[in-house]
Specification:
Blueprint lengths: L4 E4 L7 H12 L3 H12 L7 E6 L2 E9 L12 E7 L8 H15 L5 E5 L11 E7 L6 E7 L1
Parallel strand pairs: 4-5
Antiparallel strand pairs: 1-2, 2-3, 3-4, 5-7, 6-7
Length: 150
């Protein structure tokens, strides 16, 4: 089985621009928005970080932590966001490893609970996340599932 490298952006800050572009291409959020969050993390203005999985130098998976993931429950912070694994690398435990990594990292900094907004069902439960309730996403016509990890 191939080994991948899991890092925080602080461990490899020189790939910030590449990471921001990668997330932008996956989610359509402006690259500048990712750079703003990443810079705050790299400058130690926040512990809400960015976590990546690399296959050699190629980003194949990632996620971030931000204050609010575009929903109406502004009191539920922080939020895991932008969870993505490249299609050719799915079903290899990469997203699960990244989710566990962020939970442990934030717990070590006394940041708990954390939240996650998704339309997926039954995926996040495998990694200790619990369905909390439905919330309204900003500009979304349908409610989305809010999960919590304590």
């Amino acid at each position: 089985m191939k080994k991948y490298t899991y890092i925080t952006l602080r461990q490899k800050p020189q790939i910030k621009d590449t990471a921001a572009e990668w997330f932008h291409c996956k989610w359509g959020v402006p690259k500048e928005a990712y750079l703003e969050c990443m810079n705050a993390y790299l400058n130690n203005e926040t512990e809400y970080g960015w976590y990546l999985c690399l296959d050699e130098k190629k980003i194949i998976g990632g996620l971030g932590v931000i204050e609010n993931d575009f929903h109406n429950r502004k009191d539920l912070v922080p939020n895991v966001c932008a969870v993505y694994t490249e299609k050719d690398y799915r079903c290899r435990g990469i997203a699960g490893h990244l989710l566990n990594m962020v939970v442990e990292d934030l717990k070590s900094k006394s940041i708990t609970p954390i939240y996650l907004l998704t339309d997926h069902t039954s995926f996040y439960e495998k990694y200790g996340w619990e369905f909390l309730y439905m919330v309204q996403g900003d500009g979304e016509p349908h409610m989305s599932r809010m999960y919590i990890h304590k």
